[in-house]
Amino acid sequence: MLTRRNIIIFIMFFIVCYTLFFLFSFQHKQKDDSLMRDVGRLVPIKVKEVVKGQEIEQMQTLLQEAKEKDLKISIAGKQHSQGGHTYYKDAIVLDMTTYNRVIKVDPDEKLVTVQSGATWADVQEAINPYGLSIKTMQAPNIFTIGGSMSVNVHGRDIRFGPLIESICSFRLMNANGDILNVSRKENEELFRLVNGGYGLFGIILDVDIELTDNVLYKATNEWIDYHDYPDYFKDKVLGNPEVEMHNSRISVAPKSFLTEMYVTNYYRTDEEKLEDYSELADEKYIRRNKFAFGLSRQSNWGKNFVWFVQKHAFKEGKEEFISRNNVMRPEVEFLNYDGKNDTDILQEYFVPVDDFPEYIDRLRDVLTESELNVLNITVRHVPKNEEAYLSYAKEDMFALVFYINQGISAKEIEKTGEVVRKIIDLTLEMNGSYYLPYYQYPTKEQMREAYPLTDEFFQKKREYDPDERFVNQFYEEYGK
User: Fold this and answer.
1) How confident is residue 480, by pLDDT bands cut at 50, 70 and 90?
2) From residue 240, how far is each of 219, 267, 283 by CA, in Å?
3) By CB neighbour count within 10 A (0-12 exposed, 13-18 middle, 19+ buried), where does 55 fall?
4) What is the pLDDT of residues 221-273, one digit of tens each?
5) Do 224 and 147 share a domain, yes or no?
6) 267 and 391 share a domain?
7) CA atoms of 123 and 135, how far apart (whole Å)
8) Count of alpha carbons within 13 Å of 223, Cβ hemisphere only?
9) How many domains are there within the chain?
10) Do 350 and 318 share a domain, yes or no?
11) Domain stops at, among 155, 183, 213
12) Residues 107 and 128 in one domain
């Protein structure tokens, strides 16, 4: 049993390790302005130029010039996709982050109209004073609306599915510079193609997004046996109308590898207290989290220590009151890692809810036989939604989000790829799927099996864009 003295010793030890880590592991960022890189840094490509998107007329002029000179165009936001989805060799990269106004908030209709280069943080700042909140977004709020649409993100709210569900309509500029209104009633096919379409059909301009109420949650933690997770989730979480958000983690520490897990549930609670918690908060513990991931990158000892700290930070019975907007607020700055010889990547796999225990047991076998440096696995729920052409949730799924450290040499990339393809084979065998915004490790055959409309999707791309004006490395790898 831990005594107060032991806890103080561990805290002092933590501080000492933190200091040593930053003294001895600091690395200078390398920059080569002639190359375009996304956050994964595994697909560096030389592009023609980067153009900041600002006005509609400017973008139309750019498209006309590209047509006359037969130039390719790629569309970029925050570039957190990790497989070259936002650029292409010798292409013009249209950086949409400067096309970023929140145009209108309609509190009566619970609707926001926003330019596609705005971030979720921009939207939160605009809607929070009205007592409104976003339905679906990534846990970090740093991404652009257009980028999130292009990968059809999912979030923490178990009552709402992928982002496409809360997109009402948008305007799209096609390769000819024409502006199309797109919704479920107008250009419906494009609606299903552009959401989850990875920037291949045109430039998303302004978007109408359906909102929900900002509410107050009471967050509590529980530690459970992973074998019990499907029944626990269906009965205690999905079956409880007061629980609206849910998150869980399973251990990657060698001492408890893929056996121990904890969940955090967010219970809707007293609305009268909301005003005490409604102010938007900045991210906490950035340095602590950077240090924790640094330890995990370096050694198994570090992974064991970090999980030990988590076990005592996420105690059962501990309660925290937090607004919905602040649950979705973290900027996660600590994920920006620039190692000289290594990088951090994401992978994500979707598995049917009831198959979770068997999947974990089989996954453990695959990972134990490999040397994949997994730093974290978060588990989220994704309700069934097949509206987008490239839909990943053909039934209610658990999404396992892998945070991985790997080398950037060709040898290390191939080594990671072998393991990733094994995991995908396992996932597909269990009627699951995987997420597309990451590095080009999956084979074309694996993509077709995970996404049955793959060939039709790429054929539609060529129908809507016969000159293949909008391209990226993802299309080059899987669409040609």
Assistant:
1) confident
2) 14, 9, 29
3) exposed
4) 999 999 999 999 999 999 999 999 999 999 999 999 999 999 999 999 977 78
5) no
6) yes
7) 12
8) 13
9) 2
10) yes
11) 213
12) yes
* Whether residue 309 sits in one domain with residue 259: yes
Whether pTM exceeds 0.85: yes
Per residue in 182-225, pLDDT (tens digit) is 999 999 999 999 999 999 999 999 999 999 999 999 999 999 99
- 30-39, 57-66, 349-358, 386-395: range with lowest mean pLDDT: 30-39
CA atoms within 13 A on the CB side of 460: 17
Predicted local confidence at residue 80, as pLDDT: 79
Q: Which of 396, 459, 461 is nearest to 433 (CA)?
A: 396
Rounded distance between C-alpha atoms, residue 353 and residue 54, angstroms: 44
Angle between helices 4-24 and 300-313 (to 10 degrees): 130
Return the closest-CA partner of residue 70 out of 96, 48, 37, 43. 48
d(CA 310, CA 451): 36
The alpha-helical segments, DSSP class H, found in 389-472 are 410-429, 444-450, 454-464
**Which CATH number belongs to the domain containing residue 172 in this structure?**
3.30.465.10
Q: How many CB atoms lie within 10 A of CB 213?
A: 13
Please write down the long-range contacts of 74-77, taking CB distance under 8 Å and 24 or more positions apart: 74/47, 74/199, 74/470, 74/471, 74/472, 75/146, 75/150, 75/199, 75/203, 75/470, 75/472, 76/50, 77/116, 77/117, 77/143, 77/144, 77/146, 77/147, 77/150
Under DSSP, the state recorded for 453 is T
Q: What CATH number does residue 230 fall under?
A: 3.30.70.2520
Span 10-46, pLDDT tens digits: 555 555 554 554 444 434 344 445 688 877 888 888 9
pLDDT at 288: 67
Residue 221 domain-assigned? Answer: yes
- Same domain (yes/no): 237, 251: yes
Helices and strands per DSSP (H, E), number in the chain: 14, 17
Same domain? 281 vs 194: no
Domain that holds residue 418: 216-437
Please tell me the number of Cα atoms within 13 Å of 144 on its side-chain side: 28
- Number of Cβ within 10 Å of residue 109's Cβ equals 11
